[in-house]
Specification:
3-stranded antiparallel β-sheet; alpha+beta
């Protein structure tokens, strides 16, 4: 009926559902700051673009906690 999940898959699902704070990356060449996913390192948005902040990473599905990044 339903899919059987391995222990590793279940652990990954729970880890991604748990909110994690994004990482701030400084690009000295472009002279900009970017927020990155703490799990996969994908671009989330530029620093100062609060309107673009999503609840999840579009690439890996990690839930993002923006509360401390105001």
């Amino acid at each position: 009926f339903g899919k059987e999940y391995t222990e590793k898959e279940v652990k990954s699902i729970f880890e991604k559902a748990t909110q994690k704070a994004p990482s701030l990356y400084q690009d000295y060449y472009l002279e900009k700051e970017f927020w990155e996913c703490p799990t996969c390192g994908s671009f989330l948005c530029e620093n100062g673009e609060e309107y673009r902040r999503g609840e999840y990473c579009e690439d890996c599905g990690q839930r993002i906690d923006w509360r401390g990044e105001e």
